[in-house]
Each structure stands twice: as structure tokens, then as C-alpha cells.
Specification:
mainly beta; 11-stranded mixed beta sheet; 4-stranded antiparallel beta sheet; 11% helix
Length: 398
């Protein structure tokens, strides 16, 4: 009898200690100025692996001791490195930034040309194989100002120059790296420049305000205004009306393709009117977690192959310019010296892992079982119809 009671007591104490330890591991990410939680903050391990993002309350996902130190990153804020487990709020400080100057090259300007720098981290997985990709690229957008012109432009990012790094692993322990891969699996090429959207009335009327809008299932938009600056958080899955932020993805919201997470964050500068548009947009980021089968996911040929794709990306506006339609058509045809454009990194955009190394380097140095750079096509996916690629001509690919 005593032995049984003692065993129950020990079990009860153990459970309570476990609960207390789990509670102690709760970490909240918040704005150092407003103390408001930051939803969608990304967490990277010491090896550069994306571990997850904070939830709508700013809470980080469960992290084991072995995953520390970690790097916490949120668009528009200075990243922080946490060296050990802690039970506290992690405050991030806003980064000083300047909005790219708008240049008017002609009185007959009809198009808005935008140049941007993109950093992305994507993962493609099946039940047995995984491909990790880190990519940085210079992209552009061409936004027509008049619907009367016979020129559509493009709202999706057009790649002018890119560098990619891949790491391939599988259940049998194979581990290899490469700068090329035949399958296209990044969501970053489908999320276009954010459209013009009217501000909530409370945000228009007050220069310092936080307004939260709820959809059918949960909060869908959070607007935080501080003077002429604005931070926006969007949960695209919270309501069908939130899809207005990603109109080019409308074809993917269909049966056979599941979005488990789809969140956007954006920063705007120099607010003057009742709406926000690409003219005020300074930077934005998004994370998409999805799963589907075969052709529902980026045209993979094997129809019955379950595919899981996660993309986290940051987009920094570098330059914007109003140009006449004649020059816009030259950009469309590639007659403006596009081959001379290299990777133009935005100030403060470098993504460092917790050990201080750039993420791109980690794809070639972390615990590889192969000593030389090599590509082993371990994915059990048949060859796909690859989308057109733009290759840099003036810089090496690694």
C-alpha cells in the first residue's frame, strides 16, 4: 500500500514539474515600443534551419534545449539572438529605414517600375525526402497606372538575377548540396507586390492607434500606426476577404491543395491618404505552409505523391520610378541592360544564423556526409516542367 501511494506521489510530482517546465519555456516576442506581441516572427536555429513562427499572441513554438541558440527575426525590426532557454518576453526594436525615393523620368509617365531584393527559405518534403533551399534574388514589378493602355505589366516578381543553394537529405541518411535543382517549389514567385487597399477608418482618424479586424474564424488583419508609419499583419486564411492581398494566388485556393498557415507582414512609410499602395510600401514578408498531391503543387508529374512545401520570404523595396510606356515596353522585352543587374542586397537584410554565419554558407558546411559539393537526385519525384529561370551572367552562382 505504501509503495503504491509513494509511486503515485512521485508520478504526480513528475507531472507537475513537467508542466511547470513546459510553462517556463513560453517565450513571447513583442514590440519594444508598444509592448504589443509580434505575430509571425520567424525563428532560426544555430544551423540556419527555420524552426517556426510566433502565433497570434507572439508566442514562439516549443523549442528544445538543443536548438539554442536561436535567432528571432521580424520584418522591419532588428533581429535578436537568444543563447539559452528563458521564460520571458523578447522585445525587438524597430530598425531605422528610409523609403526608396520615387523618381519621375518623364512628364508622360504611365507606369510604375519597382526594383526589390528578396531573401527566401523554402523546404520541399515527402514522407522520405527533404530539399531545403536558400535563395536571394533581385526582382522587378511593372504596375500600369492606366487601364486604358494596352499594357498589362506584371505584379508577380520577375527574377532579374538569383543565387540558390540546395541541401538534399533522405531517410536513408544521404546528405548532399548543390546550386541547382530541376523542380520549382517556392511560393515566393507567386506572391506579388501588395495591392492598394483602403485603410480602416480608425487608422485614418488616429496617428497612433492599433486596430484589429476579425474574420469568420479568427483575427484577419492587425493595423498598427505610429505617425506616418504603419505595420500590417494579415492572416490570409482567417477569412476569404483576406485573399485580396494575394490576388495572383486565387487559382491555388482549390480542392486538393491545403494551406496550413499563410501570414503576411508589411511595413509602410509616409502615409498621407486614406489608403496604402506600393508607393508607400517599404518591405514585407510572408510564410506559407502547404500540402497537396502531384499536379496541385507546382506541376509535379506524380499525381499521387504527397508534397509538403513551406516558404518564408522577405521582400525589400530598393527603388521605384515612374516611366513612360515606351520605356516600360523595353523593360518587358529585356532591352534595358537587365543582364548587368546583379544581386542588390537591401541594407540590414542579411539573414544571419545564431552562430553568426550567413544562411547561404551553412548549406555547405553543416554536418555534411559528402566532402565535395555534389548533387544526388534523391527525391522520388519524376521530372517536372520547370519554370523559366533567369541566370546571373555577371556573378558566380555560389
Amino acid at each position: 500500500m505504501f509503495s503504491l501511494s509513494k509511486s503515485r506521489f512521485i508520478f504526480t510530482v513528475s507531472v507537475l514539474l513537467s508542466l511547470l517546465q513546459a510553462k517556463a519555456r513560453d517565450i513571447i516576442v513583442a514590440d519594444s515600443r508598444t509592448h504589443e506581441p509580434l505575430s509571425g516572427a520567424s525563428i532560426f536555429s544555430k544551423s540556419g534551419t527555420l524552426l517556426g513562427v510566433s502565433n497570434h499572441n507572439g508566442k514562439l513554438p516549443y523549442l528544445s534545449t538543443s536548438e539554442f541558440p536561436i535567432t528571432i527575426r521580424y520584418i522591419g525590426f532588428k533581429e535578436r539572438t537568444i543563447t539559452k532557454e528563458m521564460s520571458d518576453t523578447i522585445f525587438l526594436t524597430e530598425k531605422p529605414k528610409e523609403l526608396a525615393e520615387v523618381v519621375v523620368s518623364s512628364k508622360s509617365q504611365k507606369e510604375l517600375h519597382i526594383l526589390a531584393y528578396v531573401r527566401e527559405y523554402s523546404t520541399l518534403s515527402t514522407y522520405t525526402d527533404t530539399v531545403q533551399m536558400f535563395r536571394e534574388k533581385t526582382v522587378d514589378y511593372m504596375l500600369p497606372l492606366s487601364p486604358k493602355l494596352n499594357f498589362r505589366g506584371w505584379r508577380n516578381p520577375r527574377i532579374l538575377c538569383s543565387r540558390s543553394y540546395y541541401r538534399f537529405t533522405n531517410a536513408q541518411g544521404l546528405d548532399s548540396v548543390s546550386t541547382t535543382f530541376n523542380n520549382h517549389f517556392s511560393w515566393a514567385d507567386w506572391v506579388g507586390i501588395l495591392p492598394e487597399v483602403n485603410l480602416p477608418k480608425s487608422v485614418v482618424a488616429n496617428e497612433n492607434v492599433t486596430d484589429t479586424i476579425f474574420g469568420n474564424y479568427s483575427r484577419t488583419e492587425t493595423w498598427v500606426r505610429n505617425g506616418d508609419k504603419l505595420r500590417l499583419e494579415v492572416d490570409v486564411l482567417a477569412d476569404t476577404t483576406s485573399r485580396k492581398w494575394v490576388p495572383n494566388l486565387s487559382a491555388f485556393f482549390r480542392t486538393g491543395l491545403d494551406y496550413e498557415r499563410f501570414k503576411l507582414q508589411a511595413n509602410y512609410e509616409n502615409l498621407t491618404g486614406n489608403s496604402v499602395s506600393p508607393l508607400e510600401l517599404s518591405e514585407y514578408s510572408f510564410i506559407i505552409e502547404s500540402n497537396g498531391r502531384g499536379r496541385d503543387m507546382f506541376l509535379f508529374n506524380r499525381k499521387d505523391q504527397p508534397i509538403f512545401v513551406t516558404t518564408y520570404a522577405e521582400v525589400y523595396i530598393l527603388d521605384r520610378e515612374f516611366i513612360p510606356i515606351s520605356e516600360a515596353r523595353k523593360w518587358e522585352r529585356g532591352e534595358t541592360g537587365m543582364d548587368e543587374i546583379g544581386i542588390i542586397e537591401a541594407p540590414g537584410a542579411t539573414l544571419q544564423a545564431a552562430n553568426g554565419c550567413p544562411i547561404s554558407q551553412l548549406f555547405f558546411v553543416q554536418d555534411l556526409t559528402t566532402s565535395a559539393l555534389s548533387y544526388k537526385p534523391i527525391m522520388r519525384i519524376l521530372p517536372a516542367i520547370a519554370l523559366a529561370r533567369w541566370n546571373c551572367r555577371n556573378i558566380p552562382s555560389s
